[in-house]
Design goal:
The protein is an alpha/beta fold. The protein is built from 11 helices and 14 strands. 42% of the residues are buried. The N terminus is likely disordered.
Length: 277
């Protein structure tokens, strides 16, 4: 079994400040350390929004392995809900948007290393907070249910997982959902994997009893058959937000204002309908 990935990569980031990405990387950017208040006390100023607008581009860290949030299409481009939302926010901020293809376990380290301006990759505020409590988190921009997949017809609810082996993506909201079962006195053997797809393969092969995963990803996979069903009752619902480096409050606030504008003018609903209908 593997340790929780996000906690590990934080230690790696502090020790070496290096990232091995699964795709192209943007140019490193200067990070403003500490909170906005600390910057003011030190005589500094938060210019994060001005820096992005001056550069003319907002770089977004993504792991494009989780449709419909983000995936790579036949042309080799990143597409999905997060990608479309990022592009619309970029328009409001007056900048181009560049996606930086990064392994999920490397996203926090990449952000702290300055490889991109923001993470938009199905990450929850709780994940960011566990990695580093000084990181900025945007307003939540989606909520997704964590559901149970199984080939075992006797598993129809979370209570039926008692004593079972349950797979999940290590360090993700899905693993947190598995861990939360203990709070309800449901005892399982947690089996973390590097990817949703690895857990799903073991579920198909009968090596685990069930898998916990985001409902959107689950529906994509179950549509292919294999005799795997989705339990009707989700374990819980997880909020998704953008994650920004510490001290970059002006950028965070501008992102939140742009998100509100997209919700007010109906653009947000159009993106949701496109990818989740």
């Amino acid at each position: 079994m593997r340790n929780k990935v996000l906690a590990v990569v934080l230690g790696v980031a502090m020790a070496a400040a290096l990232l091995t990405g699964c795709g192209s990387k943007g140019e490193p950017k200067e990070e403003t350390a500490g909170t906005e208040e600390e910057a003011d006390e030190a005589g500094g100023e938060d210019t994060s929004l001005e820096d992005i607008q001056g550069a003319g581009v907002m770089t977004v860290g993504m792991c494009p392995e989780y449709p419909p949030f983000e995936s790579i299409n036949a042309s080799g481009d990143i597409e999905g809900f997060d990608a479309d939302l990022a592009n619309e926010i970029g328009k409001i901020l007056g900048v181009e948007v560049e996606f930086v293809n990064t392994p999920y376990e490397g996203l926090i380290a990449g952000l702290m290393n300055g490889d991109f301006d923001i993470i938009m990759s199905g990450m929850s505020p709780e994940e960011a907070d566990e990695a580093d409590k000084t990181l900025n988190v945007t307003e939540n921009y989606y909520s997704v249910a964590e559901v149970i997949l199984s080939k075992d017809d006797s598993i129809q609810s979370k209570e039926d997982l008692e004593g079972k082996t349950v797979g999940s993506h290590s360090g993700s909201t899905s693993e947190y959902a598995v861990d939360s079962l203990a709070d309800e006195d449901i005892h399982v053997t947690s089996a973390p994997y590097n990817r949703h797809s690895e857990a799903f393969a073991d579920l198909q092969n009968g090596n685990i009893d069930a898998q916990v995963v985001e409902e959107t990803w689950a529906k994509e996979k179950v549509a292919d058959g294999d005799g795997i069903h989705i339990c009707e009752e989700p374990i819980n619902s997880i909020n998704v937000a953008g994650v920004i480096g510490s001290g970059r409050d002006s950028f965070r606030d501008a992102f939140n204002d742009a998100l509100k504008q997209l919700k007010d003018d109906g653009t947000y609903d159009e993106i949701v309908e496109k990818w989740f209908s």
